[in-house]
Amino acid sequence: MGQKIELKKLSIRLSALKIHFKIFISAFLFVLSVGYISGLDLLNFTTNFSVEGIERNILGELENKDQDIIYFKMPKGQLNTIIHSHLIGLSIVFLILSILVNMTNCNFLFKKIFMIEPMICLITTFGGMWLLWHEINFMKYVIMISGIIMHLSFVVMVVFIYFDLFLYKSK
Question: Could you read off the pLDDT of 107-124 as tens digits, one per residue?
């Protein structure tokens, strides 16, 4: 029959790929990044990247400070839809990025951190939204901090993948 390939012996490095694979991965990362940035633009629109904006978006606003817009508490169904879609979608995004980071020439500790950290931030960010909806108000700070770390992780992972694809020179 066919040859068995042991996964522990399988070692693929991005820097060693043929140029057409590198271009394909590069195009994928570009489109993924554009989509990710459009999500950040929406986040800025709904929260102004502020703790107060996070709280207002989820819990609403008792006083109408802005005469044009009235903020109500987010319906539970909408909150659950946001959490559900973001956890599934972003976990797949970070899974793909983690696999690609694992194929770089970065050190093992860096790989371990960036394979696990975004998943922890996903749980703390979106779990924090659920807890904030249940009026555990300090979670707005946890959401902000874990969200920032998650977004920085995305950027760092993409930059390291691009570096390994096109700038890394093997010894």
Answer: 999 999 999 999 999 999
